[in-house]
Amino acid sequence: MLAVRVTTWDGVKNYQAQGNLKAASVGDFAFFITQVQRKL
User: Fold this and answer.
1) What does the record list as coiled-coil region(s) (predicted)?
2) pLDDT exceeds 80 at position 22
């Protein structure tokens, strides 16, 4: 994402999260958590 600098976020189903994303501005900080389970 650093190289692209602009990306589209789709598939966000939580309405509160959608509102927060719409309210975000350029220069705002973000915190990302991914929850991926690997099969062993």
Assistant:
1) none
2) yes
Question: Mapping DSSP to helix (H, G, I), strand (E, B) and coil, where does residue 38 land?
Answer: coil
Q: How far apart are the first and last CA of the chain?
A: 28
CB atoms within 10 A of CB 20: 13
Residues 6+ apart with CB under 8 A from 9: 21
The identity of residue 1, as a single letter, is M
Task: Write down the domain spans for the chain.
Answer: 1-40
Q: Could you tell me if 12 and 18 are in contact, meaning their C-beta atoms sit under 8 angstroms apart? A: yes
Asked if residue 3 lies in contact with residue 12, where contact means CB atoms within 8 angstroms, the answer is no
